[in-house]
Specification:
The chain is of the alpha+beta class. 19% of the residues lie in helices and 24% in strands. It has one domain. The N and C termini lie far apart (35 Å).
Length: 162
């Protein structure tokens, strides 16, 4: 996996330029000083983007992970620029589950996966891609605790959330 700053910034710029509606968050700030207050019921559709009160770009989206055993997990993820760390990106969710873990900062592979998901709406996952991107497993921090694997991710609308 490569994670050069220039490649990370290039993919992030493409991601934040994605054509989707704006979400106006005014001067709101979450309890941690980040965008951890956006909830699934704050907008309609599958994704929104914007700039927060600290002038950081963000994009928020709904996705569903399908696993090899047929189980599905709905996620709500906000990807945003880190404060005080140039060209670093994190995820947050006011919901229970995010799409993946960032462990200190999103990787180029994770940003590329989000961009592909936004463009294609549905993507198949190889085991290697799921592992490289640290795709979430329900109720687990370490994916090796489970014998089933994530196989597909779909962008979903608010009407599809259960």
């Amino acid at each position: 996996m490569s994670n050069t700053v220039s490649e990370l910034k290039q993919v992030a710029d493409q991601l934040f330029a994605f054509n989707c509606p704006e979400l106006d968050v005014d001067d709101q700030m979450g309890p941690t000083g980040y965008i951890d207050y956006i909830k699934p019921n704050d907008f309609y559709g599958s994704c929104r983007k914007g700039i927060d009160c600290a002038n950081r770009k963000f994009i928020t989206f709904r996705a569903e992970i399908e696993y090899s055993n047929g189980q599905k997990l709905q996620t709500f993820t906000t990807l945003f620029e880190r404060r005080n760390i140039p060209d670093a990106y994190m995820i947050q969710s006011a919901n229970k589950y995010t799409l993946f873990y960032t462990d200190g900062g999103a990787t180029v592979e994770q940003l590329k996966l989000v961009l592909k998901l936004l463009n294609d709406k549905v993507i198949g996952l190889s085991e290697e891609m799921a592992k490289d991107c640290k795709i979430r497993y329900p109720g687990a921090l370490i994916e090796d605790n489970y014998s089933y694997k994530p196989v597909k991710i779909s962008l979903i609308n608010d009407s599809e959330i259960v």
